[in-house]
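Notebook entry, structure prediction.
Reason for the run: the old model in the group folder had no record of what sequence produced it. Starting over properly, with the input documented here first.
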Amino acid sequence: MPKIKRRQFIILTAAGAMATSATSWAIGKNNKISPQTKALLSKLYKSSNGLLELDLEASSTRIDLRGKPADLLTYNGQIPAPRLEAKAGDTVRICFTNNLSQPTNLHYHGLHVTPNGNADNAFLDIPPGKNLTYEFTLPKNHPSGTFWYHPHRHEFVAEQLFGGLAGLFIIRGELDEIPEIKAAKEEFLVLQDFALDDSGQIQSPNHMAMMRGREGQLMTVNGQVNPQLAIACGGLLRLRILNASPSRFYRLALENHPFYLIATDGGAIGTPIELKELLLSPGERAEVLVRGDRESGQYRLLNLPYDRGGMNMMEMMGDGGHMMGDGMAMMQENTQTNPQVLATLTYQGSVSPLPLPQQLVSVEELPEPKTVRRIELSMEEEMTPGMGMTFTFNGKAFDPNRVDTQVQLNTVEDWELVNVDPDGMAHPFHLHVNPFQVVSRNDKPDPYRAWKDTVLVKGNETVRIRIAFRDFTGKAVYHCHILDHEDLGMMGIVEMKG
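New structure, fully documented this time:
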């Protein structure tokens, strides 16, 4: 089947809780849409009258990827999954069915909702063939932003996300109403990578790929290879970008165009910040504006090479024999050395020049806390010969029966995240339920002071984050968002007590 390219989204209004987003596609030169493709057109579910309600099914689905059949894991048969949209104060009700061959669950990444019951509960287990209704209410002061949902059943997370299970969860609000941003054209970019064999099956990682974190050579944007994006001369383009890969880092640059950062994981920043490039580690999101003020033509959105460390791991693992050779070969195969094209931006038409917004949203400054905790991120050798490495916080691998950190509700704490990994591997740190602000890196103040839920901690780096524990008691988790590392032990439990 010829390559499919996305041209534009047309939002269709519908009664009830669901609205369908139809996409105009061009398939090769014939501009024909197959019945199979029609069935897989991405859907948008929007809240109505304060309720976002939908059926969501996880299953194995054969789809066309780069003109070839691929057997991937999907929500409702789609790559990426349906986009969900709600507003602060809305109730969310998702009737979820697990038709995978493995247990699974759902995590609402970045949402500030309760970790208890059938809400954002990472400890839920939904066996194959079973269903569960998730229901929770967003706080009335929940920030607007770009959030997402994906599986979080421990020991299956990396495999299921690598299979394709990921979708955007958008909270609409204050940022969307700023006139310049409201006038901008909006595009959603879900970045995913896949490793497929000749028959379209997902390749199983070897031991070394799991130690480093699995990556695939096929990089996609919204399930497509090099899709087309459009901008009007004089216009503004708002890109809402999600790194939904389990291990791959994206160092993004748009030819001859700067990015103007307007929001990070947890919502808007105070004023736009001009960037030449944008680094997103796994799980991170960003919103940027692009100005249509260049010569009309085509410009490539590039993924630039990035060294995330860990290449000396082979020496640390001793004489692994075949594991040494196979592991190094796979690492070298998936190590990017040249810029790679993710999408192409084309100038189409013209509008009266739109200015950049001067002010965005006021960002709260958290008070200096009395409590400071130190959390060391490391890779350690297993005591059992032949087991390789495990990943730990403060020297301990994850234990579902152990609470690692107890905090008091309505307090603020600083956590020092210290990467003592002997191989210098970078680790993105993610905290459930409560967002945080990055205070400093190696004692240098962070310039953004933005709300985040995932932060990169590079090799030999200390990152201080400031967390306000609000609204919800219960147990949640924090972990490395290189998801093989989480599955291999780099996760802890935080209990919030009233």
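Summary: The two ends are 57 Å apart (CA to CA).
The old model has been moved to the deprecated folder.
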